[in-house]
Amino acid sequence: MVSMKSIPKQSRCFVGATMASSPTSISAISFTNQTLHKRASPRAMAKEICFNHDGSATKKLQVTYTSFSFSFSFSWFIGLTLTRQARVNLVAELVGVTLGPKGRNVVLQNKYGPPKIVNDGETVLKQIELEDPVENVGVKLVRQAGAKTNDLAGDGCSTSIILAHGLITEGVKVVAAGMNPVQIVRGIDKTLKALVSELKLVSREVKDLELADVAAVSAGNDYTIGNMIFDALRQVGRKGVVKIEKGKCTENSLQIVEGMQFDRGYLSPHFVTDRQKMTAEFHSCKLLLVDKKITNPKDMFKILDSAVKEKYPVVVVAEDIVPQALALLIRNKRKGVFKAAAIKAPAFGERKSHYLDDIAILTGATVIRDEMGLTLDKAGKEVLGTAVKLVITKDSTLIVTDGSTRAAVEKRVSQLRRLVENTEEKFQKKILNERIARLSGGIAILQVGAQTVVELKDKQLRIEDALNATKAAIEEGVVVGGGCSLLRLSAKVDKIKELLENEEQKIGAEIFKRALSYPTKLIARNAGVSGSVVVEKVLSCDDPNYGYNASINCYEDLMAAGIMDPSKVVRCCLEHATSVAKTFLTSDAVVVDIKEEDHTPRRKPPMPLPTSTDSLFPKNMLPSSSRQRRRNPQSDSAAKLLSALR
């Protein structure tokens, strides 16, 4: 044990081992006071050895660098300490509460309203914030697994966190025992690639009637939500557009409207009208369609002048807009002169022109083209299209119309179908079929109803998860659900081990095998059953569809019972959980910012002076100085002199 009593408190620190696999002795380093007080020099902070609850010691070096522009500290941890400081267990426990059909709700504090009651892992994950900056770095790292899965697949956030927790927990055990973390991580990475290939082999295409099952499982076995999403997709098609809105009554409802969606978002976030959702939403707006680059801001003056006079929003869809023209829209929008937004036209070349023509047919607009003899500077409001509602995000645009152009749309669709019949080239047929689906598909709007605001928010999150899971199933197919697909993949790991190079890589594969059972164990635990017993019984049966149905607490053919997961969600969970775990196992240092305290004294505002002394003191209790001023003989003589002059 090293004694630190002989070293001054302000000028000592610990330097310890940076790798669990190669520990070194701890030595004390002292800094002279002259070195410590130099400008932009390191300031060593004394850190005694900290003992954890289990008796393990934290060997920590913390050095502060201060200069005119920055201040930060960095810390080294050994083995288990980094994982404990990162609070992976805390995140997994909070998010894991919601996993499975019998998962419970989480109550979230809301500063500006009633508390939120949610059953969505992604929402819970966003709210986790720790006070200690080092611990918070770990939370942010593990948060990436769930957030990335939710962004790409729309569901599976909780499963990603639980898998990452399993990989980190099992991996830290072997790294602390002296194994090389780099080789361990290589074994985990090779196992991941092999398991993703196996997942594609067992995946199959989802049937139409199974879409309701996929949606219901994602919504917590709520078949009311599952059937509503299935009905919406049945009417607009598998690749149709389904939007979720707040309803005006207590019951859910489905509405099919005319409209179109394309993959282009706003050109600047300054056009956003809803900061929370980061969307720009307009009602009863006009569309300006330009099949060229807008290079001169003055060309839009005539269009914008009519928008100011008649007070309607304008959305510009053009091939491109120069910064000067874009600045004109942003500046006037921020000043409140008019409501506006700008979008880059979808696709390129000939497909871009077709896209603009389809939007023009749908909205009743006229596309501005030089070859048609129509220029932007001479165009008036007669070339503008009309939309009942228009919602723009950073990467997509939704146009909803009132159906007044239905006859023109049907005429264009019939023309496109004749072109499909007369075209032999496959690529051209594909493009024409896309245009037909875009014009004739329509948009399904799910209006969510509830008794209270808290219930409404929870239902919206459930429906969003169910819709995203259904779309993921349409893209890459489905596998058996209930965590059973991950258990079946764990049985393939033993064959994968034979292909690995060394024992440490095989240990990495074994870590992956153990982590794959974590989601099933947690689903069983949330249902009040022993997870180890469930895992053992499921793996004892050779039927790949045999598993544990937590909603009714029985073992059965899960595919026949409608318990299935989208393959895309499972794949994203595996990939992103592995990515985060690899980062944790190969990291040994943490660098965080230091919050500098403001020591400048706060000045108290001066008290306002009264208009007269009578406002503070009664007439008979004036201060002596005031009474003396009133009895001053010089002032009395001056007053008499003034009166005589008058």
UniProtKB/TrEMBL annotation:
Highest taxon in the source lineage: Eukaryota
Region spans: Disordered: 596-646
Gene3D superfamilies assigned: GroEL (3.50.7.10), GroEL-like equatorial domain (1.10.560.10), TCP-1-like chaperonin intermediate domain (3.30.260.10)
SUPFAM superfamilies in the record: GroEL apical domain-like, GroEL equatorial domain-like, GroEL-intermediate domain like
Gene Ontology process terms (BP): protein refolding
InterPro entries per the UniProt record, alphabetical: Chaperonin_Cpn60_CS, Cpn60/GroEL, Cpn60/GroEL/TCP-1, GroEL-like_apical_dom_sf, GROEL-like_equatorial_sf, TCP-1-like_intermed_sf
Keywords: ATP-binding, Chaperone, Nucleotide-binding, Transit peptide
Keyword Nucleotide-binding found: yes
GO molecular function: ATP binding; ATP-dependent protein folding chaperone
Family (UniProt): Belongs to the chaperonin (HSP60) family.
NCBIfam families: GroEL, PRK00013.1, PRK12849.1, PRK12850.1, PRK12851.1
UniProt name for this protein: Chaperonin-60 beta4
